[in-house]
Design a protein that fits this description.
Layout: E1 3-11, H1 15-28, E2 34-39, H2 44-50, H3 56-63, E3 67-72, H4 87-98, E4 102-108, H5 121-124, E5 128-134, E6 142-147, E7 152-155, H6 160-176, E8 180-185, H7 191-204, E9 211-216, H8 217-226, E10 233-236, H9 238-252, E11 259-263, E12 268-272, H10 289-301, H11 305-320, H12 326-329, H13 338-352
Parallel strand pairs: 1-2, 1-3, 3-12, 5-10, 8-9, 8-10
Antiparallel strand pairs: 4-5, 4-11, 6-7, 11-12
Helix pairs in contact: 1-10, 1-13, 6-7, 8-9, 10-11, 11-13
The protein binds nicotinamide-adenine-dinucleotide.
Nicotinamide-adenine-dinucleotide (NAD) binds near residues 256, 275 and 278.
C-alpha cells in the first residue's frame, strides 16, 4: 500500500490540541493509502527541550518527509529571548531551508456561518478567494537588519527571480479558477513594489486569459472588507500577505477556519494561518477546523483528492447542522470544545462513508 511519511510539528500553545484533532480525522477517514507520522520539536517547546527553536533533527525530519503538518508556535514565555532563539525564528528558518516560497491561503464562506462574521451577509455571501503570499523573502528575511539602542531597521528586498517564481504560481492558479489576478503592493512608495509591477506585467503577456489588476495595499485592506467578492486570486509579498490574510479571516467568521499550504519545489508544509493562541491554550477551546482543513489540503497536494473531499464534506455537514466552537458561537454558551468538534467531524465521516 502506498505510504506517505508525514512530519508532525505540533509546536506551542494550542498546537498540540489542534494537531490531535487533525490526527483523529486523518486516522478515521477511509483511505487506500497509509500515513506514517513522526513527531518533531519546533518553536518554544524545542527551545525548552533542545535549546534551539529548530533542532537539526527536526529540520532533517521535515526535509525527508513527503509533507509536514504544522500546528503553531510562540508564546510570551519566549518573547524576551534573542532573535535566533525565539520560536518564530524556528518557523522562518524551516520555511527558508525547505524553500517553501508559495503560501496559499484560501478564504471560503460557509453558508451556515454567515452570522458568525461581523460583516453583513450580503457582503460575504459567495466570497471565494485565495491569497498567494510570498513566504521566504521580503522584509522578514532582508539584510541588513538590526535593533540598536535608539534606532532599528529592516530591509525589504526582492529579486526578479523571486517575484517570477511566486507570480507564476499565482497566474497558474488564477488560470484554473476565475481568471482574475490582483497584485497587491505599495508601488507609489516602495521600489520593491515597482519591481513587482514590472515583472508581473511582463509575465501577464503569457497569460492572455487572466485579467491582471494592481491595487495598493492600503486600498486592498479596505476593499477586502467593503467588497471581498471582487477578488479571485490575490498575489502579494510576504509582510502584506501576512497581514491581509488575518484580515480576510474576518470574512469567513474566525481565524480558526483558515488553512494554508506552503509549497516549494520539492516539499510542502500545511498549517492553520493562526498562531498559538496562548489566551485559550490548554482549555480545549480552540477551533481545530483550520488545522483539519490544512490536513485536507495536504492530502490534496499528495494527490489523494477523493479522501480530502470526504473530510471537507464532513466539515460542511457539521457546520450546516449548527455545531460551533466558541470562536464561532459569539456570546452563546452553546458551543463545542476543540475535541468535541474533532469527534463530530469523525462521526460525520463515518456516517457519510458507511
Ligand atoms: P493568534 O493567531 O495566536 O491569536 C489571535 C486571536 O485569535 C486570539 O484571540 C486567539 O485566541 C484567537 N485564535 C487563534 N487561533 C484560534 C483557533 N484555532 N480557535 C479559536 N480562536 C483562535 O495570534 P497572536 O495572539 O498575535 O500570537 C500568539 C503567538 O502566536 C505569538 O507568539 C505569535 O508570534 C505566534 N504566531 C505564530 C504563528 C504560527 O505559528 N504560524 C502565526 C501567528 C502568530
Amino acid at each position: 500500500m502506498k505510504t506517505y511519511n508525514i512530519a508532525l510539528m505540533p509546536g506551542d500553545g494550542i498546537g498540540t490540541e489542534i494537531i490531535n484533532e487533525a490526527l483523529k480525522v486523518l486516522d478515521s477517514v477511509p483511505k487506500d493509502f497509509k500515513l506514517n507520522f513522526k513527531e518533531y520539536l519546533i518553536g518554544g517547546i524545542a527551545v525548552d527541550k533542545a535549546s534551539n527553536p529548530l533542532p537539526q533533527d527536526s529540520l532533517e525530519g521535515a526535509k525527508n518527509s513527503d509533507a509536514i503538518l504544522f500546528g503553531a508556535i510562540g508564546g510570551e514565555k519566549w518573547d524576551k529571548l534573542e532573535r535566533d532563539l525565539r520560536p518564530e525564528s524556528g518557523l522562518l528558518r524551516l520555511r527558508k531551508e525547505l524553500g517553501i516560497y508559495a503560501n496559499v491561503r484560501p478564504v471560503r464562506i460557509y453558508n451556515a456561518l454567515l452570522d458568525s462574521s461581523p460583516l453583513k451577509k450580503n457582503i460575504i455571501e459567495n466570497v471565494d478567494l485565495v491569497i498567494i503570499r510570498e513566504l521566504i523573502s521580503g522584509i522578514y528575511f532582508g539584510e541588513p537588519r538590526a535593533k540598536e539602542k535608539d534606532r532599528a531597521y529592516n530591509t525589504m528586498a526582492y529579486t526578479k527571480n523571486e517575484i517570477e517564481r511566486i507570480a507564476k504560481y499565482a497566474f497558474d492558479l488564477a488560470n484554473k479558477r476565475n481568471k482574475k489576478l490582483c497584485c497587491v503592493d505599495k508601488a507609489n512608495v516602495l521600489e520593491t513594489s515597482q519591481l513587482w509591477r514590472e515583472v508581473v506585467s511582463e509575465m501577464a503577456k503569457d497569460y492572455d486569459d487572466v485579467k491582471l489588476s494592481f491595487m495598493y495595499v492600503d486600498n486592498a485592506s479596505m476593499q477586502l472588507i467593503v467588497n471581498p467578492k471582487q477578488f479571485d486570486v490575490i498575489l502579494t509579498e510576504n509582510l502584506f500577505g501576512d497581514i491581509l490574510s488575518d484580515e480576510a479571516s474576518v470574512i469567513s467568521g474566525s481565524i480558526g477556519l483558515l488553512s494554508s499550504a506552503s509549497i516549494g519545489e520539492n516539499i510542502a508544509l500545511f498549517e492553520p494561518i493562526h498562531g498559538s493562541a496562548p489566551d485559550i491554550a490548554g482549555q480545549n477551546l480552540a477551533n481545530p477546523i483550520a488545522t483539519i482543513l490544512s490536513a485536507s489540503m495536504m492530502l490534496e497536494h499528495l494527490g489523494e483528492t477523493k479522501t480530502a473531499k470526504i473530510i471537507n464534506n464532513a466539515i460542511d455537514s457539521v457546520l450546516k447542522d449548527g455545531y460551533k466552537t466558541k470562536d464561532l458561537a459569539k456570546d452563546s454558551k452553546d458551543f463545542c470544545s476543540c475535541s468535541k468538534m474533532g469527534d463530530l467531524i469523525v462521526k460525520y465521516i463515518k456516517e457519510q462513508n458507511g
